[in-house]
Amino acid sequence: MGNSLLKKLYSPEEFKKQGEKLLTEITTHISKTTTGKSSKTLTWNTPDKELLFWKTFLKEGKEDDFFPEILNRTTHTHHPKYVGHQVSAPAPITLLTAMTSALLNNGMAVYEMGMAPSAIEKVVTGIICDKIGYDDQSSGLLTSGGTLANLTALLSARKAKIPHDIWNEGYNKPLGIMVCEQAHYCIDRAAKIMGLGEKGIVKIPSKTNFSMDISQLEVSYQAATEKGIKVFAIVGSAPSTATGAYDDLNAIANFASEKDIWFHVDGAHGGAAIFSDKYKHLLSGIEKSDSVVIDGHKMMLMPTITTALLFKNKLHAQHTFSQKADYLLNDEVEEDWINSGKKTFECTKTMMCMHWYILFKFYGEKVFNEYVTRQYDLAKDFEEILVADPNFELAASPMSNILCFRYLDSSKNDKDLNDLNARIRQNLLEDGEFYLVQTRLSGVHYLRTSLMNPFTTIHHLTALLSKIKEVALTIK
């Protein structure tokens, strides 16, 4: 390469120098955030100002400042005052697996472009299938996020339950998926991508705790049938995203069996509770499902983005995107686990399986038991404080580590209370000490905490409530 830029680009010495410097900065970042020594969870900036900063930095910024600026200008999920979105504070060791995947760049579509990760993925999905309660006829795959995984599962459901060759010939008769009105929006999105339209999303009302009202299943099914809609699948949330409420999976399983429809569990957030000795009862009935989704980057301490999609019948893991109209799903067909490009939307994907494998290998299942149990327990402790404080109102008793509440002011009506809580949240965002999000439930505006960080304690949550009270008094 001579003295070209390419030689410098691939220089091991150059990489070592840059890498050692970054590793030192990241180690300091982890230390400052996990201990709460850094004063803020994020340093807020408006979109226009942030865009201007990076446009200017590209032309004028110092190269050595790039990573420090990234660390400074992003939300710190490792900070104990991070109680916002449902992404983990990744275990630092997964930085090494992410880096290795990025360097090797084995796309995994075919076996020879991913020998080790293809085998590792098979091991990892086998462990999770076993934990769900599936037998040795099960299998699964890893893919890029819960949205893609849920869509893939529902495509597989349609192929399994609708005899028509929709993949090759299309289909214009109305089909439907049953799902609770509180389910994650990606189920609606999947239904519409599949061409089912609004009418193909059969919404089941929720109970006061925001879980699916099982008593409404038959009514909703019959109403859809009378409209000429062929229901082929039902989705159980484990839990719903907004409130963290688990649906009754046993009841849904029984209904699905009775109607001969596919039973899918969206456990993107809380499916990891299968590893918790204390809370696995929330997933009772999951073993009866046809498919399950679990995100590694939510409650399993991994970086974005990695999701497991598990099938009770291993052949369903590979028939979704079969190109042949005469493909027969029978016991004589051998599972083709080595060529992941046949099983996922992605032709190329990262070696995400390494995150799962290294945590199982170095720390075992016990680390997930400890983590999930701790975070769910913390939500219960937080609930006690909120219930005892007349300044706050809970949306529902938490079933997971997601908790929705609002600040109360007896002098304000519901509309003004909604506005007050929205303004409190915006003020906290701009202040940056804490990071939490918000949601609307039945027209009521709530503050929403997802207790994702293993360093968050009840002390931090008590401080959050004190901060909210202080902020509320400043809002006119």
Description:
This protein has helices at 5-9, 12-34, 47-60, 66-72, 93-104, 115-132, 146-161, 166-169, 185-193, 217-226, 249-259, 296-299, 316-319, 353-363, 366-388, 414-431, 458-474, and strands at 139-143, 175-180, 201-204, 230-237, 262-266, 291-295, 307-311, 392-394, 402-407, 437-441, 444-450. By secondary structure, the protein is of the alpha/beta class. The chain has a seven-stranded mixed sheet with strand order 1-7-6-5-4-2-3, sandwiched between helices. Strands 8-9-11-10 form a four-stranded antiparallel sheet. It starts with a helix and ends with a helix.
Task: Tell me the structural class.
Answer: alpha/beta
Rg, Cα atoms, Å:
24 Å
Q: How many strands, which pairing sense, and closed or not: the largest β-sheet? A: 7 strands, mixed
Beta-sheet strand percentage?
A: 5-15%
> Low-confidence runs (pLDDT<50, min 5 residues)?
325-333
Task: Give the number of helices.
Answer: 17
Order of helices and strands: HHHHHHEHHEHEHEHEEHEHHHEEHEEH
- Number of DSSP strand runs: 11
Essential attributes:
476 residues, seven-stranded mixed β-sheet
Layout: helices, strands, pairs:
Layout: H1 5-9, H2 12-34, H3 47-60, H4 66-72, H5 93-104, H6 115-132, E1 139-143, H7 146-161, H8 166-169, E2 175-180, H9 185-193, E3 201-204, H10 217-226, E4 230-237, H11 249-259, E5 262-266, E6 291-295, H12 296-299, E7 307-311, H13 316-319, H14 353-363, H15 366-388, E8 392-394, E9 402-407, H16 414-431, E10 437-441, E11 444-450, H17 458-474
Parallel strand pairs: 2-3, 2-4, 4-5, 5-6
Antiparallel strand pairs: 1-7, 6-7, 8-9, 9-11, 10-11
Helix pairs in contact: 5-14, 6-14, 7-9, 16-17
